[in-house]
Design brief:
Elements (H helix, E strand, L loop, with lengths): L1 E3 L2 E3 L8 H19 L3 H7 L5 H13 L2 H16 L9 H17 L6 H11 L4
Antiparallel strand pairs: 1-2
Length: about 130
């Protein structure tokens, strides 16, 4: 792209520098990789994007949410982690499954845990039975 009289216009292929040509090729490869990993609904969501970066940004907001949404999710999960207890009549396998689900989501949002901390937490939440 270049500016002519204040208007952005696309350059002809012959006018591209070697660097611009290489960037364009990388962008095409990245767009192909992204689209090959998408289902049909997600493909249509990003099919009109002009760059791989634009595709990535749309997918990121769609699946992870904005920074504020991520922060709110992280705080809600931390509270769920802190209040975690074994439910009445729940078997240990189900407790471990729920606990792992919470911990994995928190790790995905950037929270770090020591293995010892996790072991102590899970042992404290079990009831006597």
């Amino acid at each position: 792209m270049h500016v002519v009289d204040g208007v952005f216009t696309a350059k002809c292929f012959d006018e591209l520098t070697d660097l611009e040509n290489k960037k364009m090729q990388y962008d095409c490869v990245a767009k192909n990789i992204i689209t090959s990993a998408l289902n049909l609904d997600e493909f249509f969501r990003v099919s009109q994007c002009s760059s791989a970066k634009e595709m990535w940004d749309i997918l990121e907001v769609t699946h992870e949410g904005t920074t504020n949404v991520k922060r709110a999710r992280k705080h809600a999960l931390i509270q769920e982690y802190e209040l975690f207890i074994m439910q009445q009549g729940e078997i240990i396998a189900d407790v471990q499954k729920r606990f792992t689900h919470i911990v994995n989501h928190l790790i995905g949002l950037g929270k770090q845990f020591d293995r010892e901390e996790l072991n102590i937490k899970i042992l404290k939440c079990l009831d006597r039975s």
